[in-house]
Amino acid sequence: MRSPTLGLSACLLGLWLCWGSPSWAQVLREPTQEQVLSQDEFLSRLEGVRVLYLGEVHNRPDDQAAQLQILQQWYEQNPELAIGLEMFERPRQVYIDQYLAGEISEAEFLELSEFETRWGFPWESYAPILRFAKAHNLPVLALNAPIEAIREVARGGFDNLSPQNLSYLPPVEEFDLENQAYRQRLQDLFESYHQGHGSSEGFETFFKAQVLWDETMSYHVAEFLQTHPERAMVVIAGQGHILYGDGIPSRVERRLEEIEQLSLVFDPDPTLSSTPERPLADIIWHHEDSDLASDPETPPD
């Protein structure tokens, strides 16, 4: 069984944004070694892959533009794709389906899905991806838990979840809270956000809210792939849900043991550690002349 972030023999691949450039990519086979990877070589890595994770910084339009490029290229190689999006909550799936079927306009879709208020990042960053899916009849999945459920957990743990919100979630008793490296990474983030003044109780509910995000998204990815064995999926989510495989990838693998996965993140924080034993991701995409933007996973209100 292949680990979700140890594919490619624990290599890190650094990919440049320009698909046509002769020096399109760099490969980090060891933390200090580099070699060139071509576009064709990257696409060959996708052969047999069922899930490709694209870890973005939400407020960086270059990330969404690169996601569309990757999606278009993989579609040419394998038209049996689906797209999973963190940007939409499970109760909004009906509106995605109506939009893709042409039953409602894009304007109606935005209003009904409450995209602008629930997600909060510009629609035009993601619109080309949805339009591509509509033009090519690709299924699109709303992966995220309702924000109301996240807030319930953040304020009172899993016992605070309402029956209405539980209906959109996987069984809470299946949640994995034992990943100590993930817990430590989130604790460091929590303490940084609260400048050292956060309580241990506050961290525990924050941690559980993060796990709720990841478990819900992984559950719906796995459920779709189980019922659609002919399809592969592109999963687009924030980097925090993909780095080191701790968030979504490891939880999909727990549900679907024999599954080929590949993770790619765009210009991650250069201060994050990465080793062959615990790589950030299978693939690191570097935008040319990019300025790293901040996009922390902050504790829910």
From TrEMBL:
* Domain Haem-binding uptake Tiki superfamily ChaN, first and last residues per copy: 43-252
Q: Name one Pfam family in it.
A: Cofac_haem_bdg
Outline the segment boundaries, as ranges, of region: Disordered: 267-301
Q: Is Transcription found in the keyword set?
A: no
Q: Where is the composition biased (Acidic residues)?
A: 291-301
Could you tell me the keywords of this UniProt record?
Lipoprotein
Name of the protein this chain belongs to: ChaN family lipoprotein
Q: Which organism is it from?
A: Phormidium yuhuli AB48
Ranked from the top, the taxonomy reads:
Bacteria, Bacillati, Cyanobacteriota, Cyanophyceae, Oscillatoriophycideae
